[in-house]
# Entry
Amino acid sequence: MALLLKSALEKYKTIILDMKNRHVGPTLAMAALLAACSTEDLSNTSTSSNPSASAAPAGPVQAAQREPVLWAKPMDGLDAAQLERFEFGKALFEKVFEPSNGLGAVFNAQSCAECHGQPATGGTDPSRTISRFTTLLAPQFAVGLLTQADGAPHVHARSVADEFPAQVPGCNLAPERVPDNALASTVRATPHLFGIGLIEAIPDSAIIANGQAAAQAYPEVSGRAGAMFPGGINDINTTDQAVGRFGARGFVADVLAFTQGAFSTELGIATSHPVFSVPVRPSGNLAPVECTPFVGEAVTLREAQLVADFQRWLAPPPRPVLKGKALRGEQVFKDTRCVACHTPMLKTAANLGAPMGDREVWLYSDLLLHDLGPELADNAPEGLGTATEWKTPPLWGVGQTNKPLLHDGRAGRDFDKAIRLHGGEANTSKALYEQLSKQDRQALIEFLKSL
# Structure
């Protein structure tokens, strides 16, 4: 039954993308499919460890023992209605846009999965980065989002005129580039999305309390909360969700706002979010009408919510069973005070109920901003984060996925280099790392590769 369900769901995803009536027909069809399957069958499908069912994590992880990973699976505990939303959201996450169905005049990708596809849908892509910049008229990330002055803050490196000339006759729009008058420019590597719903479900109070405790235990660190573009009228489910969790400087607090921002910055598609409702302005100018033939909402609020739910309910990277060098490395990770910022575990809010409530989240991050010194500074501040401050990136999945290390990927997959580039509040940890024996440094890196 599990194999039949998987095959049927794949067919339904294809059907969904071609159906003109996306609000009624697919729901009835998927509901009938789910009704024919028992809860036990759905549970077996979502927890199967069959290695042939999905792509394996990139590269061997010799340091840990774990079952083969079924990436892009839903987290445990979803009911039938949530599983339906998960599958609809995944289909929309993988939907390929063109000018005829709403792709922006300038863009970076045609689907969410184009950048978040390795080792499976919801993952990363080591070859993908996005460029950002500031100018005199948009000196801060938030200003650029609101005004799009000079085309800030993101570069949309592709144009419909180049890639779809038959659909946009008369469109001569060039792709965006970092303008000559840019004050600063930077890039961002693509993070994986596995488990981000659990990160969203950690209450502000827990994040702040953990940061205060860490500052007392480790005087060299002084993390502070980032903020803030929560979902506002679209997705504000709790008063305890204003601390930024997503983005390199913790600029976004919830998954829906994060999703709507990505539709704008990556696909050039406006959504109903107050900040992202204005169509993308190529290089700061209105897009010519001949470059935007689609009329209407390319992504409705309902569809954005489905895409958000798919990401929200993605299972987190599995915890490894540590052995050998990796087990020793875990202790070295603690001894070198890496845990001052990379908090191993936080808990979700207890009042959320199943499947999100009162769960351990082994993310290895405090989700706070820290000053990491001039070596990593990019002079393109965003939100409350200054040019030298960065949100502690969660380390779960850092070894099991293939994302280049650090915010801009400059360290490649060289863990030693990434550690040595830390500065500022991390200087104490870096000095302790540099004093380690070669064997203990290798053990620490094996631990990181196991995550």
Notes: Residues 1-67, 231-236 have pLDDT under 50 and may be disordered.
